[in-house]
Structures are given as C-alpha cells and as structure tokens.
Amino acid sequence: MAYRDPERQKAYALEWLKRHPEKARAAARRWNHANPTKRRDQQRRQRERDPAKYNAMIAAYHRKNPEVVRTKSVNYRARKAAAVGKFTAKEWAALVEAHGGCCAYCGRRDPLQADHRIPLSRHGTNFISNILPACRRCNCRKARSTEREFRVRLANECLRSSEFEVVDWWPAGEIEWVS
Question: Which end of the chain has a smaller Cβ tally under 10 Å, C or N?
C-alpha cells in the first residue's frame, strides 16, 4: 500500500518489516546476492558516514557469531600461505558436532580450534577434509607435525608413562626366586 506522504510510507515499511522478518531477510539476501557491487558501495558509504556505529555493529555481530570469526581467520591465514581451499562456518559446526564437541586428539571439551591434518606450512589444503577440531593445548603441541606423526607421538608418550606405573597383577606367592 503506497502512501504519498514519505513519512507515512516509511512508518508503514517499518511496521511491515516487524511483522514479516523472515520475508524481509530473504528478500534482502536475494538482493545482496544479485547486486554485490551495489551492496559493497552501500557498506562503504555506511562505514564512511558513521565509522563508530559501523564498527560497533560489526563487533556485535562477531560477539554473537564467534564460529564465523574463527572460520574467517583460518581462511585468511590459509590465503596468506597460498593454500588451496576454504571452508564455511556451517561446515566447521558440522565437523565439531561430528566429533561430539570434543578435541579430536585428547577428547577434552575445551574451546576448539581448527587444526590442519597436514599443516599449511607443509603444503596442506584448507578444505574441511583436512581440518580437525582440536583444543588449544593439542593444536599448539602438534605444531608442524602431521596428524599421523602427532598421534604416534601421543601413543609413545602414553606407552612411556605406563612403563613406570606400579602394576599389581602378579599373584602373590607364586614367584620363584632362582639363585
């Protein structure tokens, strides 16, 4: 319903947006997808008009969506390393869910980081198939080693620590001392 009075038209539009948020979001998404250069220009003008407000809006989005921020930073790091591939926040969330929200190496439920099975420094890709969720401790300990090398190291550490455990399994009285 069009109004001749621009203020009344604006009020009606705002009212409609409140009543139909899903339709409005879908329409905005379609427009953004169809007009990427116009959208970039809008964002640039908005940023230039009020940089503090724009930065606050971006910061609020990042606080609300930390997985998006993590994904963006990993993809940026991979681009800097000239690695092929990238993954989305949805793919990352699905991978974390597949691992039950636990570290792929130690099983802890600490905050998870994207760990490359074959590190970027050793020419690994940045596709989701080369990513594992890892806690900060395991990700830092793994460093430049591959997933296989790190798992072997973990297994060896486990074996070495069990060598010094006191095992009380030998039946008492059945030991014969030979002199």
Answer: C
- Please, are residues 69 and 62 in contact by the beta-carbon 8 Å criterion? yes
Cα–Cα distance measured from residue 110 to residue 137, given in angstroms and rounded to the nearest whole number:
9
Q: pLDDT per residue over 159-173, tens digit each?
A: 876 655 555 555 555
Structural domain total, the chain: 1
Q: Is residue 79 part of a domain?
A: yes
Residue 174 has pLDDT above 80, yes or no: no
Q: What is the CATH number of the domain that holds 78?
A: 3.30.40.220
Amino acid at 21: P
Phi, psi of 112 (to 5 degrees): -100, 150
For 139, the token pair is 């990700």
The answer as to whether 75 is a domain residue is yes
Q: Let me know: does 168 contact 135? Beta carbons within 8 Å.
A: no
